[in-house]
Design a protein that fits this description.
353 residues, alpha/beta, two-stranded antiparallel sheet, 15 helices, elongated
Length: 353
């Protein structure tokens, strides 16, 4: 934009400012905060809709057709059906694409009530809590199809509280979350097949490092991902040492066992317990024997920059839980998958494009 156009804009802006000032409540503009709120309200009410209208007409090349009003970051805009189609506004939608994105971003982090309040503070536009909820449940959130090869992944489970009648006990149900390290996250409620199918659609490396704790459900899912020659299943080091710590007894013995496990020496670790019979020892030995093929040379893996812990997926579950487990939250069973998809879309950065 050249200097002459900038001068014209400044002149017009000053003229608009004078008109808006005359129409302002003197009591409301005694502070900078008051000025900000007053100016934004008047811009949304009187100025930006006219600017938007001009852009819409010239960009779409159309003026005729049946009109509808949509809320937008520019205020209320009137669009004809040909204009809406040309400008990629959803059919029958009452909100512009950018306002929808703001709503979805906010409600991915907080309750619908709080999202409605935050939206008004941040944008000056109002979308009710019930409209926020309807907006979420009409979306089609798509998990990405990755281009880069997935070299590492981890799986874990989280819990969601289902809605029950007043006075009835709480019902918690599991969902499964997956983290394709450095690429994307996903979460699935009562849909293990969907999780496996999505992961298998991605370009998977050989070897594919598969990290998890000791729960059978996690390894049963891994068994359907890739193939046996491709997967390198790795028992999370920190869960392994946590189970070791539960044995108790001589710290010297525990240190010796840990040193063996750190090198992937399963036989050496078990030999440390040959002269000690105890239920806690029996439990640990059974745990190590069960997962012996998943106990790797952790020292070597760490030196090579390969993950040895499932912290990434544990963090993912916690971040998903920040939405699912907000104070007092209870969910209708049929709504859980959509809320999980929205939260994952947020964690994957879909609302920042």
């Amino acid at each position: 934009m050249d200097a002459e156009k900038r001068r014209q804009i400044q002149a017009h802006a000053r003229a608009i400012a004078a008109l808006l000032y005359e129409g302002s409540d003197p009591e409301e503009i005694q502070t900078l905060s008051g000025i900000e709120k007053t100016v934004r309200h008047q811009l949304l009410e009187h100025v930006s809709p006219e600017v938007g209208k001009f852009f819409i007409q010239n960009s779409s090349g159309s003026q005729g057709g049946r009109k509808r009003t949509v809320k937008s970051l520019l205020g209320r805009l009137s669009l004809s059906e040909p204009q809406a189609q040309k400008l990629e506004v959803k059919a029958h939608s009452r909100w512009s694409p950018e306002l929808e994105k703001c709503c979805l971003l906010l409600s991915a982090n907080s309750s619908y009530e709080r999202a409605a309040q935050d939206l008004e503070v941040l944008t000056g536009m109002t979308v009710s809590a019930s409209s926020q909820q309807r907006l979420v449940h009409r979306q089609k959130f798509e998990l990405p199809q990755l281009e880069e090869t997935v070299a590492e992944m981890s799986l874990d489970g989280g819990k969601v509280r289902l809605r029950t009648a007043v006075g009835d006990p709480c019902i918690w149900r599991d969902y499964k979350a997956v983290n394709l390290h450095g690429a994307s996250v996903g979460a699935f409620f009562e849909d293990n097949e969907g999780l496996v199918n999505w992961v298998n659609q991605q370009p998977l490396a050989t070897p594919l490092i598969c990290l998890g704790d000791g729960h059978d459900g996690i390894w049963n899912l891994f068994a359907d991902i890739g193939d046996t020659t491709q997967r390198q299943e790795v028992l999370d080091w920190y869960h392994l040492t946590e189970n070791l710590g539960k044995v108790g007894g001589s710290q010297q013995r525990l240190d010796a066992v840990e040193a063996c496990l750190w090198r992937g020496d399963v036989e050496g670790s078990l030999a440390q317990f040959e002269d000690w019979s105890h239920p806690r020892v029996t439990k640990l030995v059974a745990y190590v024997q069960k997962h012996r093929h998943r106990i790797v040379n952790y020292s070597y893996y760490q030196c090579e920059g390969i993950s040895i812990g499932s912290g990434a997926i544990e963090s993912t579950v916690k971040q998903i839980g920040r939405r699912l487990k907000i104070s007092g939250a209870q969910w209708e069973r049929q709504n859980v998958p959509q809320v999980l998809k929205q939260r994952c879309a947020y964690l994957n950065g879909d609302f920042y494009a």
